[in-house]
Design a protein that fits this description.
This protein is mostly helical. It has a single domain, classed as TspO/MBR protein (Ferritin, Up-down Bundle). 83% of the residues lie in helices and 0% in strands. The protein contains six helices and no strands. It is elongated and about 50 Å long.
């Protein structure tokens, strides 16, 4: 239970730091070209709230099921993943750079796969809880790439 509290705190910190760096109402973001299939702004908090809950619970459960050495690996991957997750908001929105965002989210995708693989080594239910996060960030990668491509000359 205490590992889930720890991963919950890490996840909440990442969500808060990312939220501060996210500026979807900025003049820059409103001015760039986006694909017509971009979800409405209201969809993002609706999607991210349960995803963050699943990240906290899934990584906490994986850490609890892992042995002492593997627990440290799960927690290190979780911390790295969440730091990069929050960093994407700052790279994309605060730096006003779809290219930087794309670089960060590519790293996040690699960390997500590593995190799910590590979780699966200890608990399939924990890994399954992380699967929607991997799917959503995969979609976000395609969206970020589309925005970069449409605005690459700016």
């Amino acid at each position: 239970m205490r590992r889930t509290i720890l991963t919950g705190a890490l996840t909440a910190a990442a969500a808060g730091i990312g939220f501060v760096g996210t500026r979807p109402d900025s003049p820059w973001y409103r001015s760039i070209e986006k694909p017509p299939w971009e979800p409405p702004a209201a969809a993002f908090p609706i999607v991210w709230t349960p995803l963050y809950g699943l990240i906290a619970w899934g990584t906490g459960r994986a850490a609890e099921k892992a042995g002492p050495d593997a627990e440290a690996r799960v927690l290190a991957l979780t911390t790295a993943d969440l730091a990069v997750n929050a960093g994407w908001c700052w790279a994309f929105f605060a730096e006003e750079s779809p290219a930087a965002g794309l670089g960060v989210i590519a790293v996040l995708d690699v960390l997500n796969v590593a995190l799910v693989r590590e979780a699966a080594r200890h608990d399939r239910v924990a890994a399954a809880a992380l699967a929607p996060y991997v799917v959503w960030t995969g979609f976000a990668t395609v969206l970020n790439a589309s925005i970069w491509w449409r605005n690459r000359g700016r």
